Amino acid sequence: MKIDISRYKQIVVLTGAGVSAASGIRTYRGKDGVWQEYDVQVYGHVDRLEDNPKKIWQLFGQLRDQLKTAKPNIAHYTLAALEQNLRPDQQFTLITQNVDGLHQQAGSANVIELHGTIRKTRCANPDCDLAPVDDDNAHTEEAPRCPSCGGVLRPDIVLFGEQIPALPSWQSKKALRECDLFLSIGTSGVVSPASNFVRSAQYVGARTIYVNLDPMLPRNPAFQEEYLGRAEELLPALFSV
Ligand code: OAD
User: Fold this and answer.
1) pLDDT tens across 153-201, in order?
2) CA dist., res. 241 & res. 84, Å (int)
3) Whose CA is nearest to atom 16 of ligand 1?
C-alpha cells in the first residue's frame, strides 16, 4: 500500500524516538527504554535543576556523546526526500518530539522541535540574558555554570513538569489547523500535547495514519489507518521517493 503524497496540500508528520532507533538512539519507553533504567523524577524532571542538576546532565549528556557518531537513518532520509520533492503548492511540516537533531542532519528543513534540542545549552535562570549556545560537551561529571549570571546551565530541552515553549506550540497548532494528511511515526503517543495532535488533524478532516513498531494501546480512534513495523522499513515502502 502506497501513500500518494501528490494528493495532499498540507502534510504534517509527527515523529518520536522510534524514528531514531535505527540510528542507535534509545527510545524512552518499552523494554529497553531510557525510563526503565533511569527514574524520570530523578533524571528528567525540571525540579532537579534546582536541587540536583548533575542528574539531568548525567542522562542527557550521554545523548550528546552518542550524537558525535550517530547518523540519520533511512526513515529520516525518506522524510527529508518527501519534503524536497513537493510541488510549490504543497506544504510539509515535520513536528518532532526528538531532541537529537537527526531530521535536520538528514536534510529536513521545516522542522518544529517540540521538545527543544540537546545540541544547545542555555541558562536555567529565566531572567538571565545568555542566549542558547551550540554545545557538544556532555557535562556528565558536573552541571556547568552560566558565565553571565553564575546560575546553572541546562540542556535546551523540555523537561518533565515544563510547558512546551510558545513558538513551537503555536507553529504546531497552525500547521495542524490546515492539514489534510497527518502521520504519526515512532511515538508511543503518551506524552501530551503531541499525543493530542491526531485529534486536531481528525477534526479538520485530514487523513490520519499511525506508523509504529508496536500497536497503539489503547487504540486511538482518531487514527484511520495503522501500519506496524520499523519506520526505517515502512517509510520507504509507503512512499515512493
Ligand atoms: P517513546 O519511547 O515513548 O516511544 C517510542 C515508540 O517508538 C514506541 O511506541 C516504540 O514501539 C516505537 N518504535 C521503536 N522502534 C521503532 C522503529 N524502529 N520504528 C518505528 N517505531 C519504533 O518515545 P516518544 O513517543 O518519542 O521527552 O516519547 C515522547 C517523549 O517522552 C520524548 O520526547 C521524551 C520522553 O520523555 C523528552 O525527553 C523531553
Assistant:
1) 999 999 999 999 999 999 999 999 999 999 999 999 999 999 999 999 9
2) 10
3) 18
